[in-house]
Design goal:
four-stranded mixed beta sheet
Length: about 140
Amino acid sequence: MNKPNDETCSALEWIDLIVEGLVNIQDCENPKMRRFTKHRSLLSAFRMREWISNLARNTEDKLKQELREANKISILIDGWTTASPSTHYVAIFAGYCCPNNKEYKEALLSFKPGIINDHLLHFENAIAKYDLKVGENIFAIVGKR
């Protein structure tokens, strides 16, 4: 296996910092912020967005394959509203047994703020993205009201 190049190492380090909420995406262009990172490849915010988009797409593709192999999926839906400002969120998870080791897993399929009347469309889009179908490979839908 080849050792990752400096840009790859730098991008993954920045993604970790961004996801943890420690920095924002524009900080990768700030020379003062770059001093505090181990890998100092120059990455633009545009390039970081490409890295994040590609990583998300690859993760979705791998999850889609794993869900296809698992075959029997339960869908878990959770919604909540923040106190201030009042924003409603809905998360859709897939629960399944991993085909490789039969370990139970839950994976986030979709998360978004939205209006309450938008939930059915959100659900339909989330299961379509992963080629899931009620009655075919989805055997249970669990939600909290």
